[in-house]
Write a structure and sequence with these properties.
The protein contains six helices and two strands. The protein is mostly helical. Strand 1 and strand 2 (60-62) form a beta hairpin.
Amino acid sequence: MDTKFSSAIHTLILISQSEKPLTSEEIAASVGTNASYIRRIIGLLKKKDIVEGRRGVSGFALKPKAEELTLLQIYQAVNETEMPRIFDLHQNPSDKCIVGRHIKPVLTEMFTEVEDTFSRALAQKTLADCISLIRKKL
């Protein structure tokens, strides 16, 4: 399973809440991964103008306000796709079978509906919502 999305949220919370600029090594220690993986995620977030490097200082800064950054925007940034893809279809169902002949259009329609619902839910949640929930746990 791909963990870019959860790692990106973790990273962005750290960046937005830290009093000092954090390096990829410091972020990686919190996320539980290696610094090169964090640098790849941050590179994807930079492409979408979500984070920026600080000139002359190691570390990163969040560009939008946490209240304005939706989880859908984060998902799209790290997955480099507009619409979330939760499900994949198997490729070669048999046309000789009644199920095989009809499974792709049926599942495509159902999966698209689920993925649209997922997208709408992510668009309603922000990075600030995640931060708020963490604070409640403290």
